[in-house]
Specification:
Layout (H helix, E strand, L loop, with lengths): L40 E3 L21 E9 L4 E10 L2 E6 L7 E7 L2 E8 L9 E5 L2 H8 L3 E9 L4 E13 L13 E12 L2 E12 L9 E10 L9 H4 L2
Antiparallel strand pairs: 1-8, 2-3, 2-12, 3-4, 4-5, 5-6, 6-7, 8-9, 9-10, 10-11, 11-12
């Protein structure tokens, strides 16, 4: 996601909103999934595309949770610690820390979305950005439109059986841009691949974001890999410079 406008999942993509409009960066059936520098990968021996009635529950972020893992930008060779936690509908993501090449936070608090980038390679320090109104419910509504790609296994220190979903964001161009063809013109902007525990759609194990929201990254992609999950709450507090943003 762009360090400046880190609207993820709905805004990560409606993205968090990172509206999760994220586009196809996954591999075809039968091939190993893409792998960041962690060595984690997917075993994509998928069953045929299921009938709509067989689609498992879509991803959903719970109101209260604590997750930890890693944030990776493979083409920059960067991997930093990552935490994502929520408390009664508010939540905060933090990638990296003091001294890391990438360090940012995204926060939803009281129905408002904030993003603050402390460090990104060759990018000047940005002030806190109050992106605007955005809620956990809106984020989950974006996830609810994701398409089911199949059941896979993430190979890490422990294997995780996951359901893989994809969300894509496009923009419609003027219909007469290439003449009166009568054919809709759409351009993909962003795509997201979301991997949740097969027995718990509210437990995210991996996210791949790709698209224009990652403009500061040469390959326009980023990974979030979740290693530890719990239902414990954690206080969500705005950084001092975001209070007046």
């Amino acid at each position: 996601m762009t360090p400046r406008d880190r609207v993820r999942e709905g805004a990560l993509i409606a993205a968090l909103a990172l509206g999760l409009g994220l586009t196809a960066c996954s591999v075809p059936p039968g091939a190993p999934g893409p792998s960041p520098s962690t060595g984690a990968h997917t075993d994509a021996a998928r069953t045929p595309v299921p009938e709509p009635s067989a689609v498992p529950p879509r991803p959903r972020i719970p109101e209260t949770f604590s997750w930890s893992g890693r944030y990776a930008v493979p083409d920059l060779g960067i991997e930093v610690p990552f935490v994502w936690y929520g408390n009664d509908g508010d939540f905060q993501m933090i990638a990296g820390g003091d001294g890391d090449p990438v360090h940012f936070t995204n926060i939803i608090r009281s129905g408002e979305l904030y993003t603050l980038t402390y460090a990104w390679p060759e990018v000047p320090r940005m002030p806190c950005s109050h992106v605007g109104s955005f809620t956990l419910a809106e984020l989950n509504a974006g996830f609810a439109t994701a398409s089911f790609a199949g059941e896979e296994t993430l190979h890490r220190e422990d294997d995780h059986l996951v359901h893989h979903f994809r969300s894509v964001g496009t923009v419609d161009l003027p219909s007469d841009l290439l003449g009166d063809t009568g054919v809709p013109l759409r351009v993909p902007l962003m795509a997201g691949d979301i991997y949740v525990d097969a027995d718990d759609p509210s437990s995210i194990r991996q996210l791949l974001h790709f698209g224009v929201q990652n403009l500061y990254d040469p390959n326009l992609d980023e990974w979030i890999l979740v290693d530890e999950t719990s239902a414990d709450p954690r206080e969500v507090e705005l950084p001092e410079e975001c209070v007046a943003a």
